[in-house]
Amino acid sequence: MQYLWWAVQEIDQNRRQKETGEKLLMLACEEYNVSVDFYWAPLLVESNADHPSKHKTNERIVDVESIEKHAKNWINADVLVFNSYLWWTRRAFKILHGSLENSKQYNVVDSHQAYDMVLKKWAKWLHGYVNHTRTQTYFMSMTATHQSGKEWGMNGDESCWNETMPVTKDGFWESGSDSKMMRILESRLNKLKEKGVNVQLVNITQLTQYRKDAHPSIHRLYNYPLTATQLNNPSSYADCTHWCVPGVPDVWNELLLAYILRGDK
Question: Which domain of life does this protein belong to (predicted)?
């Protein structure tokens, strides 16, 4: 996970090594005999979102039967941490018949069905290829987005821009968090457990619901020039989805570390 990547980067730069590839970042510290790999596969199986930077498109295409291209990089890890949610927040997905390179035949299904199909394939691979007596496996639950200030009492089109305090309403739940997706994930993890594979769900969802103040907002680097409209209205381009600032990701690290040290397998 990317927040683990940040944590390991706190190690003295003279005591670590860094390697990069198109989909893989690897940070190793020989002194501690540890390395952290961040692998880019946002939809778990092969898809048209697989390139780390060239993935902007109005449609999402997934090859449900093709996971090995990604998964071969996961097999020998001592700890596996998965995360796949935000990229599924679309109404429909194209499910390919054949490869991304050669096939133009596909079925269109809704996001819930596509998510379940991919998790089924992922679970089957995990059951068959990972040594679960050695590898601890975790799945981080979905995180909130804070695009609509009306949901926490603001007027007009305000977003998370200029927010400095958490939501204080007990049990707050923002509209971008799909609870049905959460139930699909929990169901697949329970079926894995019945087969003797214990993938721990690290549930960070509710705690992120309150933190409308913890997004990078306008304080981030963009890969494209901002328009005059955006510059005149910061709320229109504030990043209220990612969590690339200190604070909340540090809590995720602490929770995950507690699981790992407890030795859940």
Answer: Eukaryota
